[in-house]
Amino acid sequence: MIEAVEFMGQPAMRLVAPDGAEATVLLHGAHIVSWIPAGDQERFYVSPTTGFGPGTAVRGGVPVCWPQFNMRGPLPCKHGLVRDRAWQWDAQQSAVRAGAAIGVLTLRDDAATRAIWPQGFEAELTLVLSGLELDIELAITNSGDTPMTFTGALHSYFKVDDVRRSRLGGLFGVEYLDTVIDETHRQEFDPMSFVGEIDRIYWNAGGADKQPLILATHMGRMGITAEGLPDVVVWNPGPAKAAALPDLPDEDWPRFLCVEAALIGEPVTVAPGESWSGRQSLAV
């Protein structure tokens, strides 16, 4: 089943697979705000104090960061320009097939986006949902007449009981940039644990040829894999930075961990008329 609903007063689509797995995605930003695997519980964290609606970037769920990650690019807007714009639901491509619910949202450049970034593009976000798995794919087509270069990420916020009791495995030996102290290191512990603020970019850590990352929490183990998004960002603000974020309760920082499939270190260039895609797959 695929149906139009409202989430926090905003237009959204709810996908329900035949086995009961479900997900909800806002049209605003193509922002996934809920995923409940079949017979399971909510897996994404959304801040109870975040804003919703035009001009707002929702904190939590899965924000789509494109065509730049953070401020690593020429655009003045953090994490690009698509996460706070109205996408369109593609009813023709969205369906329940072969036991899975499939949802597709699209966004095309317009005068407002070209005023910030003079580039023609078509963006498509596809969700494939069934059982204990969720695939999220971002596809970009260059509809302009010049080459298009970009970075980006699927900025997933995973719900945990206490990040200090969570473990993330699969990054042993991977080089990373610790942006908190602006130093490069190599991961020496696996699985890794968390105390306080963490903000790291692991270079060339994910991909079809890599082993899944394993996030272990009170809810069990989740496998996280990626294709076309080679870098992995691991982020939690810790208590001090959380206190400075107006859209996050001070006491909520232990309740999530961001493990993001990202394209940061080596930007992609797409020729006119050509396409690129990146995917994050989750399994519990």
From TrEMBL:
Enzyme Commission designation: 5.1.3.15
Transmembrane feature ranges: none
CDD domains named in the record: D-hex-6-P-epi_like (cd09020)
Pfam families according to UniProt: Aldose_epim (PF01263)
Signal keyword on record: no
Keyword line: Isomerase
Superkingdom, natural source: Bacteria
Enzyme class: isomerase
Catalytically driven reaction(s): alpha-D-glucose 6-phosphate = beta-D-glucose 6-phosphate
Family, similarity comment: Belongs to the glucose-6-phosphate 1-epimerase family.
Protein name: Putative glucose-6-phosphate 1-epimerase
